[in-house]
Specification:
Two copies of one chain form a homodimer. Chain A folds into two domains: 4-82, Winged helix-like DNA-binding domain superfamily/Winged helix DNA-binding domain (Arc Repressor Mutant, subunit A, Orthogonal Bundle); 87-150, 2-Layer Sandwich (Dna Ligase, domain 1), CATH 3.30.1490. With 152 residues, chain A is α+β, with helices and mostly antiparallel strands. Chain A has five helices and six strands, in the order ααααββββββα. In chain A, helix 2 (20-29) crosses helix 3 (38-48) and helix 3 (38-48) crosses helix 4. In chain A, strands 4-3-6 form a three-stranded mixed sheet. The first copy, chain A, has a two-stranded antiparallel ribbon with strand order 1-2. Chain A is globular, with a radius of gyration of 18 Å. Chain A has helices at 4-13, 20-29, 38-48, 54-66, 133-138, and strands at 71-73, 81-83, 90-94, 100-106, 112-114, 120-131. The interface between A and B is large, with 46 and 52 residues. Strand 6 of chain A pairs antiparallel with strand 6 of chain B. The complex binds manganese (II) ion (2 copies) and zinc ion (2 copies). The site of one manganese (II) ion has 6 residues of chain A, from loops. Chain A binds a DNA duplex (30 and 30 nucleotides) through residues 15-19, 21-22, 37-39, 51-56, 58-59, 62, 77-80.
DNA sequence: CTCGCAATCTGCAACTCGTGCAGACAATCA
DNA sequence: TGATTGTCTGCACGAGTTGCAGATTGCGAG
């Protein structure tokens, strides 16, 4: 996602208005690596702008996504996550707390794929599952399967 | 997922009862490669057993999943998909119709991963996106990137 | 084979996440 | 400053899934 200033210009150029709500959301997202949900962003936004509507947060996120400024991730049950990082990258998801972190993968083309016959791929996403550093120490590196808890 | 007969034995062994509803669902899932949603399975089941409850379908799916007989896929917004194929495999998802197909990937270990520091992975899932054969011919084909070649 | 209990099934309410809608509101520009 | 849109907000609604309770039934004991 581009900087708040660049986004402001881009919105203006498209005939979209610059509102304090949008500007706030631009700021909250810029450089944000937490892959927040709409609700999470709403909480952040509400702290700085009491009265802002969750509907507005959703609307702005949708606008940004359709402008290609952020990607929407649906990697697990529950709320979608929004990612202002639109570079080519992948994710690791904690089975315990749901945290998402960025992962960069190289030599993807070295893999051998069977069964795509007739399918025209335009991309591939890798999601690593496991335990994040925090949850790994909290829980003695026990069972590596079976748990599917979600964060709240 | 094992055969209906094997599952029947497994359920009995765990003190779970064998009901006609469960047996029907075993049969509908065995060898099913369509990655159906709960609703889709409910439709199939209703055809053979009018009056069966959607709730029961969900319940049985949850039971099977917690026994490790099937995996639950949340790869996109919308309903979860259920996969009786628990071998090591991956998926390709059509952007147009949502169809999921199995994909087998080899030489995964050849990839180079950065950013996992401290994260303890227990698995990785690849999802290819694009157009399935049907939708690709229906629609004008958009030019693809080179993310995924090496098909065999 | 019948009985009785616990597991299961069913229908419905409730819940989460997201979208549609309409009227109040406000950014922009003449 | 006023007119013109686009935007914001609050609420209703919809999809997907789970919680609950009463009716039903599998199945082991007798
Ligand atoms: Mn990311
Ligand atoms: Mn599969
Ligand atoms: Zn964690
Ligand atoms: Zn398709």
């Amino acid at each position: 996602m581009r900087s708040p200033a660049d986004l402001t210009a881009a919105f203006r150029q498209q005939g979209l208005k610059i509102t304090p709500q949008r500007q706030l959301i631009f700021r909250l997202l810029h450089g944000n690596e937490e892959h927040p949900s709409a609700e999470a962003l709403y909480e952040l936004a509400s702290a700085q702008m009491p009265g802002i509507s969750l509907r507005t947060v959703y609307q702005t996120l949708t606008d940004l996504a359709s402008m290609g400024e952020l990607q929407v991730l649906s990697l697990a049950p529950g709320a979608q996550r929004f990612d202002p990082n639109v570079t080519d990258h992948h994710h690791a998801r904690c089975n315990d707390c749901g945290q998402l972190r960025d992962v960069y993968v190289e030599r993807m083309l070295d893999i051998e794929v069977h069964g795509l016959d007739g399918f025209q791929p335009d991309g591939a996403a890798i999601v690593f599952t496991g335990l994040c550093d925090v949850c790994a120490t909290t829980r003695p590196s026990a069972d590596l399967h079976q748990h599917t808890n979600n964060s709240k």
